[in-house]
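Q: What would this chain look like folded?
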Amino acid sequence: MRVDNKAGELKGDLMNRVHVPPFSCQHERGGHHLVVSLVLGAGFFFMGEEVWPQAPFLHAAWHLFGAAAISTANDLIFGPG
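A: My prediction, written as structure tokens:
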């Protein structure tokens, strides 16, 4: 059985466009840095929820950061729409 991994191929293409010289896709590079920042923020809040379980809104914060990262990555890969 063949599994179609089109999303993975598209993410690989984006990574190659962003990180391989010449850096002709500056807007994609900036978007990639934004996605990385949002993912790191989501990870911080996710781990913070484990460290400080009584702190309010940490669960919501990592969901918001994660959703923003996914939305931004989808815009970079598939275009705004």
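Residues 26-52 form one domain.
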